[in-house]
Amino acid sequence: MFRSLSLKRSFQTHLKTLIHCPQPPPPLPLPFSPIRTLSTASSSDSELRKYLGYTALLIFCGATTYYSFPFPDNAKHKKAQIFRYAPLPDDLHTVSNWSGTHEVQTRHFHQPENLQQLEQLVKESNDKRTKVRPVGSGLSPNGIGLARGGMVNLALMDKVVEVDKEKKRVRVQAGIRVQQLVDEIKEYGLTLQNFASIREQQIGGILQVGAHGTGSKLPPIDEQVIRMKLVTPAKGTIELSREEDPELFYLARCGLGGLGVVAEVTIQCVERQELVEHTSVSNMKDIKKNHKKMLSENKHVKYLYIPYTDTVVVVTCNPVSKWRGPPKFKPKYTKDEAMQHVRDLYKESLKKYRAREITSTSPDSNDPDINEFSFTELRDKLLALDPLNKDHVMKVNHAEAEFWRKSEGYRIGWSDEILGFDCGGQQWVSETCFPAGTLSKPSMKDLEYIEELKQLIEKEEIPAPAPIEQRWTACSQSPMSPASSSAEDDIFSWVGIIMYLPTMDARQRKEITEEFFHYRHLAQAQLWDKYAAYEHWAKIEVPKDKEELEALQARLKKRFPVEAYNKARRELDPNRILSNNMLEKLFPLSDNV
Predict the structure, then answer these.
(1) 151-152 and 109-110: which strand pairing?
(2) pLDDT tens profile 313-371
(3) Vertex 142, ends 139 and 144: CA angle to 5°?
(4) How far, in Å, CA of 240 to CA of 238, rounded?
């Protein structure tokens, strides 16, 4: 599913002015006597004039309403509505992340076409002390790249600059998207070492937030970068590598966009290869028995847990054997048979909720046939019927377990095709990273974490949909990475919890948001400190409560080199033009600008 940053000129946005028109008072009670005297006639004429005055005032208010709102030329024919949203100026952009959970409005959204334009933009912005926050594809659930003061997006700087086939290295502009890069270098027989779930991220963005794929022997994606070009406000364009200023290089690889605008990166690639993906269904007892073997023997492995069931979907990916070739396997069920239980539940639930008038969903002749929906699309539709009803969510989860049981089998393809994952529709997600021992001696804390999390869900009766996704990586040398470690053998587990936003109804989305943050808070209180778990930078949310924020700041200082990071921010971006509200709150500086 394509995901991208949402950018539009807003003609309707937050309400600025409400026009309150006076309302007439309630009618006076009738007199006890029907006899009309001169006095009562005079009073009646007075009342008539009063009501005529109110009528004239209402008409005046209506006319004022109509002509006060400066509709665009193509909307002049529209009738004014009381309390209509007042349009924003033409130069004001609304920029939101893909899930629609965070948005800002700005007059300054820059898209330079080359390095010279980017350098000029950063220099001028620094001279004027105006914001120019780097923002990528807008895929981060927490909107980490958004800034009301102004943003720079490198979508037009998306070229492959150089390919070194012998050393398996590519130099690219940072605005290139992952899928575009992979498509352009496959003719050289090269690809990336690992991938996140989706392919629409810009390289600069996926690098700066410490994104990752899965595989206990494979580090997060920032470890693939061996050289980078950084455009900084104070020092101009600097080149960093392991050989040239290694301390700043490692710090800036996962720099959260706060140290400079990443303009170019050199990536260490690997040979393109075919993988065999094996999807199977297991349970917690068997997972515990085979977990160490799973981590050590598979190049890529992830577990998908389904709340309120004992089902664990295991997905492994390994290179096709040169000697044995791809496995010969005939699936027991067709795709339609795997989907049938989910389709039946949707029809049954739709009929039930329509009868109870709980949902406003109604048949539409333009709707595609139910058989045309993918599994994730149909899951969204099912959840939309009653997303916070625990019993309904449990039924959906059981249907998903049945779907995976009938989808067991093998799939063969190139790594860039196989390692993706359909994450579903718009969603809230929180993902934590914590140590899980070493490759030679896993601690099993990763499975203990999951068991406690599932028990918490059931105890608190959280309407938690599937899946709870668990992945692993090797460590990173980037000190700001959640998986940073100086011990080469260390491995880290990444666990993501989720709540979908399968509706555009504002009230329902608000209720789902509140329930998700309750879910996240319970997990945080019970698990994060116990397992030394820290949130993914693209998924961390800034608390609104002052005490909670201070606690988070103190917690981040225990795990990350915050002082070194802030020192680099002062040196490279003294006017904080690259910063935004999130960075300022997570890493406050005493000399706030």
Answers:
(1) parallel
(2) 999 999 998 777 777 888 899 999 999 999 999 999 988 887 776 544 444 444 567 88
(3) 80
(4) 7
Q: How many CB atoms lie within 10 A of CB 400?
A: 26
**How many CA atoms are closer than 13 Å to the CA of 192, on its beta-carbon side?**
33
- In degrees rounded to 5, what are phi and psi of residue 152? -125, 135
Q: Which of helix, strand or coil describes residue 66? A: helix
Kindly list the structural domains of the chain, giving each domain's residue range(s) and its CATH number in brackets, ordered by start: 93-153 (3.30.43.10), 163-272 (3.30.465.10), 274-331+409-541 (3.40.462.10), 336-353+371-403 (no CATH)
CA distance 212 to 475: 11
For residue 503, give the amino acid letter: T
User: DSSP secondary structure string, 534-554?
Assistant: EE-TTT----SSHHHHHHHHH
Angle at 199 between CA 469 and CA 153, to 5 degrees: 115
d(CA 60, CA 51) in angstroms, rounded, equals 14
Using alpha carbons, list the distances in angstroms from residue 390 to 369, 397, 458.
28, 10, 10
Residue 177 burial (CB count, 10 A): 20
- The set of residues, in sequence order, having a beta carbon less than 8 Å from that of 490 and lying 6+ positions away, is 435, 437, 438, 474, 475
End-to-end CA distance of the chain: 40
Per-residue pLDDT reduced to its tens digit, 203-259: 999 999 999 999 999 999 999 999 999 999 999 999 999 998 999 999 999 999 999
Computed on alpha carbons and rounded to an integer, the radius of gyration of the chain in Å comes to 29
